[in-house]
C-alpha cells in the first residue's frame, strides 16, 4: 500500500494529461507493428485482444481517459474496464451511450475470448485460422447460424474500431486561411518559440495551426487577435500538453482566440498558468457560483490531500488560479456583471486566507509551539474588507492578537509573544506572495496596520485599542469602516468588531473629522489625478472619491456598513446626504466600478480606449451599457461631474459649519 501511494503522483497527474492520447496511440501502433496486426479485419486468425477492434482497444480507450482526468477526480480510478467506463460516463467525460456500447462490446469480446481459451486449453487470443475452427467456436458460443455469428463478430470488431480510433488517431491537418505578408512573418516566427522546441510539439501544432488561424481570422480585428495570440504563444514554457489539450478539445481554441482578441492581459496570464484550462473541461466551469463558505470547504479538502506544507501552498495556487480564471472568463463573456465578478473575486480571496491561515499556523506551531495566549485574527481591509475586488486587486490585511498575559510560546523553539505573532504574520504574507512552482497567490499590503510601515506587522489587541483611541489619524478611522475578520479566533474577531463600532461612536463626530477628509481629498487628487479617457478610479467624482465620502458617512454616523451602497444608504437614513445626493453618487460609482473592473481584466495600464484594441473597447462599451465609445465618454463625464459636485458641496458645508 505504501508503494502504491508513492506511485500515485506519477500515475495520476495533477493536470489533465491529454498528451497521454498520443502516447497511447503510439503504443497501439507499436504493438500492431510488432505482431503484424495491420490490414483489414479478417475473422480467421484475427487476434481478439490486440488486433483492430479488439479488447485492448477498449481497455486503452478507458485507461487513457482515466489517466487524463484521474489526477483531478479520484472517482475515475476504477481498476476494472467496465467500472472505469461507468465512472467516466457519470463524470461526463464520455457520452453515456458510448460507455454502454463499449461495455456491451467488451463483454461480448471477452465471452468469445473465454471460449477460445477453453477450446485450445491455452492462453490464446487468436481466432481459429480455418473456417471449420471458427464454426466450432460459433457452436460453442451457442450460435446455430455460423454465418450470422461471423457477421455479428465482424460488426462488433468494426464498431469497436470506429468508437476508439477517432479518439486515438490524430486528424489530418486542414488548409489554413491565406495570410498577409505581416501575418505570415508572425506565423513563421512561431518556429523559434520555446513551446515548439520539440518534434512532438511541432507535429501536434502543425495539425492544430490551420484551425487556430481560421478562428483568429473570424475575430472582429484579425490582425490584433493574431498579435495577441502571438504574445500568448511566446509566453508558453512548453507546448506538448497544451497543444494536445487543444487538439482533443477544439472548442478551447475559440476560447483562447476570444481571450486573445479581447484581453491580452488574460492571454498572458493564461500562458503562464495554462493548467487553468483543465477547469474549463472538467465539468464544473459553468455551474453556479458556490459561495465563499463552500469555496473554503473545497480548498480545505483539497489541501488535506497534499503532503507537506510546500505542496499545500502549491495546491492552493493551482486551485485559486482555476477559480480566478473562471471569474475572468465569465465576466469577459457576459455571463456575470462587474458587481458579481467583484463579489466572486472577494469570495475567492476570503477562502484562500481563511484556509491558509490555520495551515500556516499549524506549520509554525510545529516548530515554535501553539500560539501563546488566545490567538490572533486576520482582518481584511480596504476593498477586501468591503467584499469587492477586481481581477488585479491585492489584499489589504492586518493581524491582531491577544496574548492574555502569556509571554512566550511552548515548543521545540519557543518564541516571545510579540516576535511569535510577527513571524507568524510574515509566514502568512510569504504563503500568499511567494513565487513557487505554481506562481504566487496575491500581492499583500499591510500598510493599514497601526503606524503603517513603521509599526509591527502584528498588533496586540491592547495596543490596537490604545492606538485607535489616542493616536490614530482620521484616515485610519476611515479605514476601519471596511475592516472585516477573515480568519483566526472567531471570539476575538467578535470583540474586534465590537471595538470597531466603539471607535466610530467615540471618534466619528470629532471636530476635525470632516476638515481632515476635505484635506485628504485635496491631497489625493493632487497626487493621483485622473489618467486616461475612461479613468474610473482616481479623480473627482470617481471611485476613490465616492468611497471616501461613503466611509466618512459611516464613520460620522457610527454605522457598521462596509460596502459603498450600504454606507451611502446609511448616510441618507442618518441625514448626512439627501436621496438626490445618493442617486448621483451611486450612478457615478456603479458606472466607474463597471469600467474599473473591466479595465483591470483587460490591461495593467490606464483605460485609454485607443490602446485597448477593438475587442477590449467593445467589452468596456458593453460593460458601460453604452452604444459606442462616444456615449461611454459622455456618460462618464456627466456622472463624475455630478458626483464631484455632491462631494464638494457636502464637504464645503462642513467647512462652513466649522
Which helices and strands occur, and which strands form pairs?
Elements: H1 2-11, H2 19-35, H3 55-69, H4 81-90, H5 96-120, H6 131-140, H7 146-168, H8 181-189, H9 199-216, H10 222-235, H11 240-248, H12 251-262, H13 264-272, H14 277-280, H15 292-304, H16 309-332, H17 338-368, E1 375-381, H18 382-386, E2 395-402, H19 417-433, E3 444-445, E4 458-460, H20 461-470, H21 474-480, E5 484-488, H22 490-507, H23 513-527, H24 543-556, H25 564-573, H26 579-602, H27 609-623, H28 629-657
Parallel strand pairs: 2-3, 2-4
Antiparallel strand pairs: 1-2, 1-5
Provide the descriptors you would attach to this structure in a database record.
single chain; 658 residues; mainly alpha; Four Helix Bundle (Hemerythrin (Met), subunit A); Beta Polymerase, domain 2; 4 domains; 5-stranded mixed β-sheet; 4% strand; elongated
Could you name the CATH class of the largest domain?
A: Alpha Beta
Q: So, the CATH homologous superfamily of the largest domain? A: Beta Polymerase, domain 2
The computed structural class is mainly alpha
Annotated CATH topology of the largest domain: Beta Polymerase, domain 2
- The DSSP helix count reads 28
Mean of residue pLDDT values: 88
Count of spatially separate domains: 4
The helical percent reads 55-70%
Amino acid at each position: 500500500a505504501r508503494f502504491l501511494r508513492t506511485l500515485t503522483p506519477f500515475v495520476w497527474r495533477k493536470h489533465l494529461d491529454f498528451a497521454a492520447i498520443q502516447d497511447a496511440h503510439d503504443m497501439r501502433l507499436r504493438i500492431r507493428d510488432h505482431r503484424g496486426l495491420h490490414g483489414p479485419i479478417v475473422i480467421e486468425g484475427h487476434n481478439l485482444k490486440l488486433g483492430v477492434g479488439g479488447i485492448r482497444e477498449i481497455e486503452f480507450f478507458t485507461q487513457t481517459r482515466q489517466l487524463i482526468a484521474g489526477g483531478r477526480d479520484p472517482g475515475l480510478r476504477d481498476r476494472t474496464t467496465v467500472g472505469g467506463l461507468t465512472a467516466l460516463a457519470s463524470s461526463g467525460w464520455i457520452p453515456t451511450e458510448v460507455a454502454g456500447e463499449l461495455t456491451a462490446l467488451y463483454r461480448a469480446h471477452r465471452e468469445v475470448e473465454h471460449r477460445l481459451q477453453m477450446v485450445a486449453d491455452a492462453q490464446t487470443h487468436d481466432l481459429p485460422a480455418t473456417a471449420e475452427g471458427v464454426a466450432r467456436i460459433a457452436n460453442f458460443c451457442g450460435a446455430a447460424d455460423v454465418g450470422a455469428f461471423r457477421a455479428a463478430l465482424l460488426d462488433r470488431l468494426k464498431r469497436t474500431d470506429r468508437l476508439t480510433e477517432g479518439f486515438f488517431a490524430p486528424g489530418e491537418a486542414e488548409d489554413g486561411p491565406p495570410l498577409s505578408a505581416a501575418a505570415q512573418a508572425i506565423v513563421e516566427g512561431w518556429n523559434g518559440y520555446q513551446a515548439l522546441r520539440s518534434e512532438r510539439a511541432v507535429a501536434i501544432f502543425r495539425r492544430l495551426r490551420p484551425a487556430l488561424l481560421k478562428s483568429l481570422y473570424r475575430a472582429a480585428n484579425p490582425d490584433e487577435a493574431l498579435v495577441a495570440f502571438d504574445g500568448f504563444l511566446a509566453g508558453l514554457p512548453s507546448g506538448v500538453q497544451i497543444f494536445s489539450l487543444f487538439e482533443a478539445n477544439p472548442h478551447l481554441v475559440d476560447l483562447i482566440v476570444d481571450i486573445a482578441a479581447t484581453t491580452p492581459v488574460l492571454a498572458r496570464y493564461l500562458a503562464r498558468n495554462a493548467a487553468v484550462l483543465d477547469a474549463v473541461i472538467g465539468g464544473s466551469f459553468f455551474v453556479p457560483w458556490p459561495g465563499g463558505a463552500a469555496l473554503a470547504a473545497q480548498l480545505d479538502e483539497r489541501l488535506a490531500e497534499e503532503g507537506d506544507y510546500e505542496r499545500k501552498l502549491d495546491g492552493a495556487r493551482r486551485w485559486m488560479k482555476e477559480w480566478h480564471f473562471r471569474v475572468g472568463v465569465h465576466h469577459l463573456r457576459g455571463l456575470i456583471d462587474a458587481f458579481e465578478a467583484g463579489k466572486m473575486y472577494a469570495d475567492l480571496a476570503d477562502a484562500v486566507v481563511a484556509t491558509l491561515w490555520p495551515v500556516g499556523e499549524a506549520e509554525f506551531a510545529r516548530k515554535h509551539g501553539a500560539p501563546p495566549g488566545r490567538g490572533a485574527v486576520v482582518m481584511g481591509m480596504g476593498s477586501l474588507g468591503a467584499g469587492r475586488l477586481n481581477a488585479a486587486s491585492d489584499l489589504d490585511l492586518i493581524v491582531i492578537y491577544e496574548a492574555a498575559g502569556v509571554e512566550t510560546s511552548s515548543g521545540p523553539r519557543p518564541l516571545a509573544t510579540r516576535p511569535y505573532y510577527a513571524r507568524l504574520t510574515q509566514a502568512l504574507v510569504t504563503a500568499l506572495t511567494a513565487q513557487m512552482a505554481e506562481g504566487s497567490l496575491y500581492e499583500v499590503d499591510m500598510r493599514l496596520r497601526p503606524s503603517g510601515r513603521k509599526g509591527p506587522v502584528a498588533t496586540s489587541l491592547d495596543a490596537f485599542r490604545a492606538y485607535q483611541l489616542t493616536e490614530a489619524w482620521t484616515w485610519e478611522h476611515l479605514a476601519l469602516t471596511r475592516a472585516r475578520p477573515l480568519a483566526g479566533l472567531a471570539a476575538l474577531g467578535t470583540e474586534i468588531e465590537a471595538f470597531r463600532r466603539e471607535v466610530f461612536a467615540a471618534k466619528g463626530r470629532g471636530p476635525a473629522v470632516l476638515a481632515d477628509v476635505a484635506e485628504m481629498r485635496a491631497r489625493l487628487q493632487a497626487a493621483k489625478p485622473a489618467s486616461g479617457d475612461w479613468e474610473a478610479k482616481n479623480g473627482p467624482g470617481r471611485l476613490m472619491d465616492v468611497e471616501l465620502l461613503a466611509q466618512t458617512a459611516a464613520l460620522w454616523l457610527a454605522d457598521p456598513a462596509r460596502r459603498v451602497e450600504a454606507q451611502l444608504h446609511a448616510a441618507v437614513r442618518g441625514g448626512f446626504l439627501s436621496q438626490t445626493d445618493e442617486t448621483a453618487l451611486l450612478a457615478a460609482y456603479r458606472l466607474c466600478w463597471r469600467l474599473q473592473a473591466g479595465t483591470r481584466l483587460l490591461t495593467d495600464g490606464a483605460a485609454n480606449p485607443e490602446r485597448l484594441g477593438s475587442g477590449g473597447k467593445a467589452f468596456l462599451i458593453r460593460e458601460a451599457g453604452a452604444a459606442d465609445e462616444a456615449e461611454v465618454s459622455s456618460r462618464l463625464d456627466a456622472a463624475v461631474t455630478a458626483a464631484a459636485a455632491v462631494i464638494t458641496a457636502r464637504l464645503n458645508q462642513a467647512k462652513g459649519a466649522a
